[in-house]
TrEMBL record:
SUPFAM superfamilies: Sigma2 domain of RNA polymerase sigma factors (SSF88946), Sigma3 and sigma4 domains of RNA polymerase sigma factors (SSF88659). Signal peptide: none annotated. Residues 192-293 form the DUF6596 domain. It comes from Noviherbaspirillum cavernae. Residues 124-174 form the RNA polymerase sigma factor 70 region 4 type domain. One of its GO terms (molecular function) is DNA binding. InterPro entries: DUF6596 (IPR046531), RNA_pol_sigma-70_dom (IPR014284), RNA_pol_sigma70_r2 (IPR007627), RNA_pol_sigma70_r4_t2 (IPR013249), RNA_pol_sigma_r2 (IPR013325), RNA_pol_sigma_r3/r4-like (IPR013324), WH-like_DNA-bd_sf (IPR036388). Residues 22-79 form the RNA polymerase sigma-70 region domain. One of its GO terms (biological process) is DNA-templated transcription initiation. This is RNA polymerase sigma factor. Gene3D superfamilies: 1.10.1740.10, Winged helix-like DNA-binding domain superfamily/Winged helix DNA-binding domain.
Length: 430
């Protein structure tokens, strides 16, 4: 194998296995920042040795063993210093193991939990509420997604130094707060799981509708959020909201190919070519939605949003969409998790189901909502309804205002195009 081929193999193995390796080492050293450093050391060794000696038969196992050996070296050195020996009770087992001839095997015996348990601990640690939302997203993509600092920076269109500082601060915060490397107990599980799901959906949404930049979507972020969501669903299979979120992401991701035109321009939902929707993802999404219901979570926030997405997925044409059911689902979502954004989406559903004027009345009532003051979709929706009602001048103004509020170039162009079309329609009126 050529050097470039070897490096590609290392990259591929690292992308797949890095989370498991970091999770296992974190279990040993009780520090995710240190665990990542030790795992990175193992990666560096692989980059040095594999091009010369060849890729081992079991590259993932090689990396795992190398990382654990570095963890053992670290623990040996720490044992020598003994400064904080008593603070790390779990090291007692490890110290005993170190006296044995086959230390690594002994450590494996001590750490006999399934690797999935370690991964779950890593998920909850990276998404700990002690961290800001931005820090949780960056750390999750780094530790669980295996993305480099540069890749995360490019995904969110921020300087690499910003992401690097964000990750460093996050690790320091976790260490200083002495956040335990564990799955929270039952009382705290729901809250902590909610934080995990929020992070995953935040990542997905940024990929699905980029807040800024020149691309309408960033599919890699959608794929990563979906991959991590599937992993979490396997780790906590009895938690219905996890399946609800996975269902939502699967169904929304199914439209990815149809959401972008040949020139990269956005294609709105009702104008999409539904033959381009990924039926496999839709089936997976509907199955996940069914699992959420089987676990008593049909009315959870994510499951309700997934049910709304499923209404669109089941409609063979835009005209067949069951807007009445969508409006009812938004009613339920608004009662469970009220927010101005949910109210705006409900207004759209009401407009489609019961008449444009009824929807516009609800949208107008939201114009005084402080939380929507800078939300570009409020004037965008209002412009759409006004346009359909034939009030073209007012619609143009709303589209132009929406364009000033969005930071996404593609969306800006779409809104200004619609504003121009409204202006042309207004001129053509007698």
């Amino acid at each position: 194998m050529t050097d470039s081929g070897t490096h590609r193999a290392i990259d591929a193995v690292w992308r797949i296995e890095s989370a498991a390796i970091i999770a296992r080492v974190a279990r040993m050293v009780r520090d995710v920042g240190l665990a990542e450093e030790l795992a990175q050391d193992a990666l560096v060794t692989a980059l040095e040795q594999w091009p010369e000696k060849g890729v081992p038969d079991k590259p993932a196992a090689w990396l795992m063993t190398a990382a654990k050996n570095r963890a053992l070296d670290h623990l040996r050195q720490r044992k020598l210093h003994q400064a904080k020996h008593e603070e790390f009770g779990h090291e007692l087992e490890i110290e005993e193991a170190l006296r044995q001839e086959h230390a690594v095997n002994a450590i494996d015996a001590a750490l006999d939990d399934d690797i999935g348990d370690d991964l779950l601990r890593l998920v909850f640690t990276a998404c700990h509420p002690v961290l800001s939302a931005d820090a949780r997203v960056a750390l999750t993509l780094r530790l669980l997604g295996g993305l480099t600092t540069g890749e995360i920076a490019r995904a969110f269109l921020v300087p690499e130094a910003t992401i690097a500082q964000r990750i460093v601060r996050a690790k320091r915060t976790l260490s200083e707060a002495r956040v335990p490397f564990e799955v929270p107990r039952k009382d705290a599980l729901a809250t902590r799981l909610s934080s995990v799901l929020d992070v995953l959906y935040l990542i997905f949404n940024e990929g699905y509708a980029a807040t800024s930049g020149g691309d309408w979507m960033r599919p890699a972020l959608c794929e990563e959020a979906l991959r991590l969501g599937r992993i979490v669903a396997e780790l906590v299979p009895d938690e219905p909201e996890v399946h609800g979120l996975v269902a939502l992401m699967e169904i929304q991701a199914s439209r990815a190919a149809a959401r972008i035109g040949p020139g990269g321009e956005p294609v709105l939902l009702l104008e999409q070519n539904r033959s381009r929707w990924d039926q496999l993802l839709i089936r997976r999404g509907l199955a996940a939605l069914e699992r959420a219901a089987q676990h008593g979570g049909a009315l959870g926030p994510y499951a309700l949003q997934a049910a709304i997405a499923a209404c669109h997925a089941r409609a063979r044409t835009a005209q067949e969409t069951d807007w009445g059911r969508i409006a009812a689902l938004y009613d339920a979502l608004g009662q469970l998790a009220p927010s101005p954004v949910v109210a705006l989406n409900r207004a759209v559903a009401i407009a489609m189901a019961y008449g444009l004027a009824a929807g516009l009345e609800l949208v107008d009532a939201l114009t005084a909502e402080p939380q929507l003051k800078a939300y570009h979709l409020l004037p965008s929706v209002r412009g759409d309804l006004l346009c359909k009602l034939g009030r073209h001048d007012e619609a143009r103004t709303e589209f132009e205002r929406a364009a000033t509020l969005t930071h996404n170039v593609r969306e800006q162009h779409l809104l200004l195009t619609r504003a121009h079309a409204c202006a042309m329609d207004a001129k053509s009126l007698p």
